[in-house]
TrEMBL record:
<dbReference type="InterPro" id="IPR020449">
    <property type="entry name" value="Tscrpt_reg_AraC-type_HTH"/>
</dbReference>
<dbReference type="GO" id="GO:0003700">
    <property type="term" value="F:DNA-binding transcription factor activity"/>
</dbReference>
<dbReference type="InterPro" id="IPR009057">
    <property type="entry name" value="Homeodomain-like_sf"/>
</dbReference>
<feature type="domain" description="HTH araC/xylS-type">
    <location>
        <begin position="205"/>
        <end position="303"/>
    </location>
</feature>
<protein>
    <submittedName>
        <fullName>AraC family transcriptional regulator</fullName>
    </submittedName>
</protein>
<keyword id="KW-0805">Transcription regulation</keyword>
<keyword id="KW-0804">Transcription</keyword>
<keyword id="KW-0238">DNA-binding</keyword>
<dbReference type="InterPro" id="IPR018062">
    <property type="entry name" value="HTH_AraC-typ_CS"/>
</dbReference>
<dbReference type="InterPro" id="IPR018060">
    <property type="entry name" value="HTH_AraC"/>
</dbReference>
<dbReference type="Pfam" id="PF22200">
    <property type="entry name" value="ExsA_N"/>
</dbReference>
<dbReference type="GO" id="GO:0043565">
    <property type="term" value="F:sequence-specific DNA binding"/>
</dbReference>
<dbReference type="Pfam" id="PF12833">
    <property type="entry name" value="HTH_18"/>
</dbReference>
<dbReference type="InterPro" id="IPR054015">
    <property type="entry name" value="ExsA-like_N"/>
</dbReference>
Length: 308
């Protein structure tokens, strides 16, 4: 279910936290299995209190199973959805998102399993399947029926990997392929293979649409290139073809336009405005605003107050 929610506001840190790697060092995460070579993983997460604004980037396709509590997710383009207790959702690769983890109301933990599938696993799985390509855009997420098959599979992972030493990547590969097979068996629509093929084979996102929705995020040029499925050089080349400007110049212009609008609307301080358009350093924001409008944001704000 999609629920309307405002676009993501910029938050620290300025660099992306990449999953699954960042999860391995978190105190509330148990690593069931991790493939260093393939960057694949199965992890179990348990949270005892509200954990808001978890900003991450997942390069791999992933499956989330929520055992207890609720996970709220806002994607890069502002789409908002919930994964509730007893639900399983497949997410596409190259996804920038902010999530809130909510424990059970009235007491109880948030518990979930997370699976990360590298391209090699997806490709191996899909080569044996019949794909019916759709002409339309694939859905942002794919909801699965969390039935007995997925439940038993997930619950047996920890004891299985704990009984094996060392925890080999071969076993992880087999279990991830098994997860995909069980997930496809849980699909009542018969479209899981097609969706998975579409979201994993089409890596390039529409650059113009993405940038115009996300220019105010606290992201670097490298972050933008990753999120649109490009190398830095191809991102800069494609960007210049569309806008005739360098990404840095265009971002500054767009952010200053939004800053001016926010100051004109009132109710926000210079610091609030700077943070809302992706600036951590307030002095850098003031300098950029002054270069574009020949007045500092503070002076501009005073003028607006006098006019009112």
């Amino acid at each position: 279910m999609k629920i309307d929610k405002p676009l993501i506001q910029s938050r620290t840190p300025s660099s992306l936290k990449i999953v699954p790697n960042i999860l391995l060092s978190m105190p509330n995460v148990e690593t069931i299995a991790f493939g260093k070579k393939s960057n694949s993983a199965i992890v179990y997460k348990k949270v005892t209190e509200l954990l808001p604004d978890q900003e991450v980037f997942s390069r791999a396709a992933s499956l989330t199973i929520v055992c207890r509590g609720t996970k709220r997710v806002t994607s890069y383009d502002g789409d908002f959805f919930e994964i509730r207790e007893g639900e399983a959702v497949f997410l596409p690769p190259d996804l920038y998102m902010i999530s809130d983890l909510l424990p059970v109301k009235g007491g109880g933990d948030f518990e979930s399993y997370l699976f990360f599938f590298p391209d090699t696993i997806i490709e191996e799985f899909l080569t044996t399947k019949k794909i019916r390509l759709s002409s339309g855009e694939p859905a942002d997420i794919f909801r699965l029926h969390y039935g007995t098959g997925l439940k038993l599979y997930a619950e047996n992972l920890k004891p299985l990997f704990q009984s094996v030493s060392p925890r080999t990547e071969d076993l992880l590969r087999i279990k991830l392929l098994e997860a995909l097979q069980i997930a496809s068996s849980s699909d009542k629509t018969g479209t899981f293979f097609d969706w998975l093929f579409q979201v994993t084979q089409n890596k390039h996102r529409d650059l113009k649409t993405f940038m115009e929705k996300n220019f105010d995020k606290r992201l670097s040029i490298e972050d933008y290139s990753i999120l649109t499925g490009r190398s830095i050089s191809s991102f800069q080349r494609d960007f210049k073809k569309i806008y005739g400007l360098s990404p840095k110049k265009w971002l500054t212009i767009q952010r200053m336009k939004k800053a001016k609008e926010l100051l004109e609307n009132g109710g926000a301080s210079v610091t609030d405005v700077a943070l809302s358009i992706g600036y951590e350093n307030i002095s850098h924001f003031i300098r950029a605003f002054q270069e574009q409008y020949e007045v500092t944001p503070g002076e501009f704000l005073k003028k607006e107050i006098r006019v009112r």
